[in-house]
Amino acid sequence: MASDHPSLSRRRAGVLAAATAALALAGTQTASASASAPGAELPRGHDVSSHQKHVDWPDARSSGARFVYVKATESTAYRNPYFARQYDGARRAGLIRGAYHFARPDKSSGARQAAYFVRHGGDWRPDGRTLPPALDIEYNPYDPHDPCYGLSQEDMVDWIQSFSDEIEAETGRRPVIYTTAHWWSTCTGDSHAFARNHPLWIASHGAPDPGSLPGGWWHWTFWQYGTRGGLPGDQNLFNGPQSRLRALASGR
User: Fold this and answer.
1) Is the pTM of this model over 0.85?
2) Contact in structure between 129 and 97 (CB atoms under 8 Å)
3) For a designed S-S bond to 132, which of 72, 115, 173, 192 qualifies (C-beta 3.0 to 4.6 A apart)?
4) Catalytic residue among 4, 74, 136, 138
């Protein structure tokens, strides 16, 4: 996932694939399904943004999707123009869905971006159909020479904590954190500050399992394992049975 600027997204995708594939070869955590034949045991899902525009949600459901994350916002100046249609369409088709925010730590505080996100799609309710809000924090698609957006490791940890605190204050939930092991090590110093109470959404493409996990996490909740597959957008798995996915959506 990244900016909705097409050329930037393609460039960032290449960096992501190369870095995460290399990290995954080290492999310390075992997935319950293979990236080459995913979904045999675990619920399949995907994530979408404005790139996917008008998604055929009943077809995604019939193709195996059980959950989806939809991009809502970026920084404090961008809203996915297709968000409402995508988000509501996924629910009508029977998918458990959630919203995600693409972080721009170089633009404003974590708290300010979290508040903007909640106002424009990132809210949560304990209805059993809404996943916790998610923070997409990763490579800088606007400047490949500055992956950490000009922040020190300490300042980046503070930025993420500020975002998380605001999300919890407004929704009652800590956000899911989407990242890669390489970015997390580079830009937070492999901080362990979030592993205890933030579900991990690990991006690791082109390997048979998610590989080494960052920052003290011993368990991944979501795994984005590729950009191509039978579902629109990026391909994901949930690390548990469907009943556990519903429990996560319910806040249990």
Assistant:
1) yes
2) yes
3) 173
4) 138
Helices (H), the chain: 6-24, 57-62, 83-92, 110-117, 153-171, 181-188, 242-250
Tens of pLDDT, residue by residue over 4-26, are 654 344 334 433 443 333 333 33
Structure token digits, residue 208: 């048979």
Mean pLDDT (whole number) for 61-89: 98
pLDDT recorded at residue 207: 86
Q: Domain 6-24+40-132+146-250 is in which class?
A: alpha beta
Q: Mind spelling out the 3-state secondary structure of 44-100?
A: EEEEECCCCCCCCHHHHHHCCEEEEEEEEEECCCEECCCHHHHHHHHHHCCCEEEEE
Q: Verify whether residue 127 is a known catalytic residue.
A: no
pLDDT at 42 exceeding the cut of 80:
yes
Looking at the DSSP bridge assignments, the partners of residue 74 are 78, 102
Q: Does 47 participate in catalysis according to the annotation?
A: yes
